[in-house]
Specification:
The protein has 149 residues and is mostly helical. It folds into 2 domains: 65 residues, no CATH class; 74 residues, 434 Repressor (Amino-terminal Domain), CATH 1.10.260. Helices cover 34% and strands 4% of the residues. It is built from 6 helices and 2 strands, in the order ββαααααα. A two-stranded antiparallel sheet has the order 1-2. A hairpin with a 6-residue loop joins strand 1 and strand 2. It starts with 26 loop residues before the first strand and ends in a 10-residue tail after the last helix. 9% of the residues are buried.
Amino acid sequence: MGLLDLFQKTRETSMEMKPQEDDAVKVVKCKGCGAELKAYVYGKNLYVCPHCGRYGRLLARTRIRQIADKDSFEELFGNLAPADPINFPGYADKTAELAEKVGITLANLSVLKTGKAKAVRFSTLDALCRALACQPGDILEFTEDGSNG
């Protein structure tokens, strides 16, 4: 699996058009200065308006394609598993079972449990609540300053 395979395409935008010679007739309008640019030229300019310098909106796949070397992705710590420092009986089995029910890796479940996750998909939250027979409010907490806890 490559790095780009981790990002699913969710919608089409004018900013994700791949520059292709035959698309030279397509036009993109800059949101900064209103200039009309040929899509091919805009893409070759890394989605930056040559008139005003405004950066166009990019999808994660496009940005990765711009900055990463082809086929250079190497997953680090893919086999990371949660620790059981107090030797709780059945902890490893219960954690593996929950991760399987929710459809995430043990490493991602560990990130969720420690509160280090920056975001949670609604589908993951829904699967967690179904597996734990709880409501989102039972496992999430709002803090005014945005800190974990």
